[in-house]
Amino acid sequence: MIVETALGRVGFDDAGRGLPILLLHGFPHDRTLWEAQLAAPPAGARLIAPDLPGFGESASVAVPSLDHWADCVAATLDALGIERAVIGGLSMGGYLAFALWRRHPQRVQGLVLADTRAGADSAEGQAKRVAMQAQALKDGPAAIAEAMLPGMVGKTTRAERPRAVEFLDAMMRRASVAAIHDALEAMRTRADSAPTLPTITVPTLVICGDEDALTPVKESEAMYAAIPDAQLAVIPGAGHASCVEHPAAFNAVLSGWVQARFP
Ligand code: MLT
Fold this sequence. Notes:
By secondary structure, the protein is of the alpha/beta class. About 45% of the residues lie in helices and about 20% in strands. It is built from 11 helices and 8 strands.
């Protein structure tokens, strides 16, 4: 579906009824990352998965920053007539969830932080983003998909779930060069969210695949320790894209948390 917001066109999918839970994809994904979650929304919850700016069916925006993207997410909530929602994000989507909490805390009813980290990019990490931008411009999205795929899934998925690997690979190859470029810029310049963690006053679910090499479990443990009202769930046999690699476990954790915290 498409919704026209004050800050541009947004493609999204929507499933279930009740507590709104917005699911923000990672890099370089699109909203289909959440296909398995939208196929089985938690009882009493409505899952909404938008394409982030420039990805999928969403328009790109003038300012490639996570703060501006957070305003875009708030505009999406406005356009859908939703006052408050649980904001969930995987990896880059988690970085965006932190920005949304800082800029629009009144819109955030809870947080789901999946396979993400609070810290900003190191100088070395920033240099890698710039190099990847150049690679995207030179060699196109397929080269970025090839570079990202090995870290995107865990060893169990690599060995046992070829369809999940193909699904993620195809998704990443669909991303446009412009979207890749802007997302890398937004991530490179993002704020350090570590000081934000103790300010989070809403219920928070931290999820991580135990084979996540890009944002290892220790990152999730640190977020869990610093956020006042957090729960931590580690998904066995899953890597960075835990919602795709082990959707049954991911969905069970999400449903359990929703039933316990938003009965
Ligand atoms: C993601 O999955 O969104 C990326 O790995 C995040 C990043 O590159 O920092």
